[in-house]
């Protein structure tokens, strides 16, 4: 399984559930009593699940996050108010008994695994009712920016990343196939688009993101995948153009003239454990 820093997860998942949680409607959270968030990372979705259970008036609902990275779990525990439990464990060998929960869910987990179906089977093993996956389609991300070079370079880097990464980061309909292969029934998928906007007045996270563009640090996070798809020379060339673009972004922010919109499509797939399965 691929590993990520807490900073990277905060950047990619920032604000995803702030504007609305309609995408979670098919999880039927008001009726859930025992929820497991697999590959929870720093706990963004875990906290949302707990909040939705509270909003439904079910104070007795149990919500647990599981992740293989103990450092990320440490961050998740710091952000939690103590109502959520966290366990260390691999998504394909969960430290949870059969039928222990009534909802097993994951966010941006399957795209980072070499065998997504193996993880779905494990989610189905521990759930007595529903399994759900919230997975982005990284090949279909779109960016609009007031800095002319940003959209072009983002697209160039994204295409190379998708080609060079060693897992399928654009699963799309193949999530449904994994659910079917795991024996789940009544499988259905809905697509949503998460919009991230940057505009004046700029949040601290936007300033950090601009600084990382200007230094090339953001691109360097994916150096291995980009080199695998292209070459060392091509990566160095892209990084030079990326840093130049980042300096333009920093200047535009200083003049309060920078605006950016990123559209990230994601699919919410749910399926039920077959009776007697």
UniProtKB/TrEMBL annotation:
Residues 36-126 form the Methyltransferase type domain. CDD domains: AdoMet_MTases. It comes from the Archaea. This is SAM-dependent methyltransferase. GO terms for biological process: methylation. One of its GO terms (molecular function) is S-adenosylmethionine-dependent methyltransferase activity. The keyword Transferase applies. Keywords: Methyltransferase, Transferase. InterPro entries: Methyltransf_11, SAM-dependent_MTases_sf.
């Amino acid at each position: 399984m691929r590993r990520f820093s807490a900073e990277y997860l905060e950047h990619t998942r920032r604000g995803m559930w702030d504007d609305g949680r309609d995408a979670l409607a098919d999880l039927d959270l008001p009726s859930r009593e025992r929820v497991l968030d697999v590959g929870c990372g720093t706990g963004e979705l875990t906290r949302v699940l707990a909040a939705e259970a509270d909003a439904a008036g079910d104070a007795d609902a149990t919500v647990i996050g599981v992740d293989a990275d103990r450092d990320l779990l440490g961050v998740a525990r710091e952000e939690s108010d103590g109502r959520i439990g966290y366990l260390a464990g691999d998504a394909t060998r969960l430290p949870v008994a059969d039928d222990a929960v009534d909802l097993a869910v994951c966010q941006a987990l399957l795209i980072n695994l070499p065998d997504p179906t193996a993880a779905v089977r494990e989610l189905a093993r521990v759930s007595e009712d529903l399994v759900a996956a919230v997975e982005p389609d990284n090949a279909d991300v779109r960016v609009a920016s007031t800095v002319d070079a940003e959209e072009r370079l983002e697209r160039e880097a994204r295409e190379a990343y998708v080609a060079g990464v060693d897992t399928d980061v654009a699963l799309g309909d193949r999530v449904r196939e994994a659910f079917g292969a795991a024996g789940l029934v009544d499988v259905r998928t809905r697509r949503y688009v998460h919009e991230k906007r940057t505009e004046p007045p700029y949040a601290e996270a936007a300033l950090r993101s601009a600084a990382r563009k200007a230094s090339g640090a953001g691109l360097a996070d994916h150096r291995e995948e980009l080199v695998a798809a292209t070459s060392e020379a091509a990566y160095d060339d892209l990084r030079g153009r990326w840093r130049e673009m980042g300096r333009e972004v920093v200047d535009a922010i200083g003049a309060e003239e920078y605006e950016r919109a990123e559209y990230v499509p994601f699919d919410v797939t749910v399926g039920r454990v077959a009776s007697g399965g």
